[in-house]
Every structure is written in C-alpha cells, then in structure tokens.
Amino acid sequence: MNNLLSPSSFITFTLSKLAIMSLPPGIPALILLIVLSIVGVGIGVAVNGYKGMNDFLVNSPTSTRAFLTMTIALPFWVWAVIKVVRSGAKDLGAISFLLVILSCACVMASTKKQQQLFQQQLSSPSCASILLLVANVTVSLNYLLPFFLNLDLTFSFYAYLVCGSLYWAGMGFWNWKGSSDITRRDGSIGEAFGYEPTERMT
After folding, report:
1. Is the pLDDT of residue 114 over 90?
2. Which alpha helices (H) appear in 88-109, and where do they start and end?
3. What mean pLDDT do residues 23-40 have?
4. Share of the chain above pLDDT 90, in %
5. Residue 190 domain flag
6. What is the mean pLDDT of residues 140-166?
7. Domain-located, residue 72
8. How many structural domains comprise the chain?
9. Closest C-alpha to 170, from 32, 79, 57, 80
10. Which domain holds residue 97?
11. Is residue 6 part of a domain?
12. Quick one: which of 33, 40, 93, 38 has its CA closest to 65?
C-alpha cells in the first residue's frame, strides 16, 4: 500500500495514463508541469487567503516561493531518476532538479525561524537565493541542451523543451524577485503554505 502512494509510483501511474491517450512526446510532461503549477498556486491562494493569483505571485514571501518551486521540481526529479535507473538514460534532470530542490531547502532553512529550530545558520538568505537562482538557470539551460546535440526529436518535444526552459527561467526570476525584499516576513517549512502576512491578519 505504501508503495502505491510513493512519488515514483504516482508519477509512473500518471504518465502511463497520459501515454494511453497517445499524446505526442513532450506533451505529457508539459501537462504535468501545467497541472502542478495551477494546483500549487491554487493551494497557495486558498490556504493563505490571498486575493487572487496575481496577489499571490506578487506578495508571497520568499519561503513560500521556494516551497512551491520545490514541490513542482520534485516530481520531475523523481521522473528523471526513474528514467536513469530503469533505462540507463543520460538525463541531467536527475542532477539539475536535485539542485533546485536542495536550493529551495536552503532558502527555507535560512529564515529566522528555521535558524532557531535547528539552532544553526545553514546559509544567509542572500547566498541561498543566489544558489536557487543558479539552480533554476541550470534547469533552464538543461532544457535547451538537446538543441545542440543534433537529436532526432519530434516538434512537440522541442516545443516542450522551449516551454520548460522559459518556465524555469521565469521561476528563477520570480524567486529572485521575492528574495529582493528581505524585510518580508518568512515562515518555516511547515508554514510555507500556511503563512499569512501580519497585515492580512489585522
């Protein structure tokens, strides 16, 4: 039962269902990216009491942005690892998405409450934010790599690669923009989606 609930099982099940629909290469991954983004932002808006998607995207604190980024990167990292383990594919996503996940963890751990929880400073907010920016850019560039390898890929997969590159470049900008205001209140990992700014509660 636990195996059925594991991330790898969920992703494998989801992709197999999409494959049954005979979707062109790259489209299942693009659908997964869109669904994860919509669900993640929707939960962030609903749980935190933001006025809408724009309010969430503009005013969400650094740790919330990092948490959302991590939840979106995690399934793609698991997907890449599955490909490497099962078929021996040379998928650099197993490394680049892991960098994003670890960077997001550093951003959340660098907040004041996390420092008090672990009684140690893992990294300064600025260093963690720079690390996350670099990780996002790495993922974005990884999506463009197949264009320089002379691979025989379908148009739909190339379209996914372009969309993926632009998406993760945008995520890098969004996270960096959020970190530029270090006076914004940040929550701990457990509050990343449950955080409500003080001004909203008064």
Report:
1. no
2. 93-109
3. 91
4. 43
5. no
6. 93
7. yes
8. 1
9. 57
10. 61-184
11. no
12. 40
Nearest alpha carbon to residue 79 among 6, 163, 183, 152: 6
CA distance 200 to 64: 16
C-alpha distance across the termini of the chain, in Å: 44
Handedness of CA 15, 53, 47, 116 (dihedral sign): positive
**Residue 2 pLDDT exceeds 90:** no
Dihedral pair phi/psi, residue 197, rounded to 5°: -55, 150
Query: Which token pair is 45?
Result: 């808006």
Taking Cα atoms as reference points, which of 146, 135, 116 lies closest to residue 175? Answer: 135
- Quick count: other Cβ atoms within 10 Å of Cβ 90? 8
Structure tokens at 162: 């372009």
* Percentage, residues of the chain above pLDDT 70: 70
Does residue 175 sit within a domain? yes
Contact 46, 194 (CB under 8 A): no
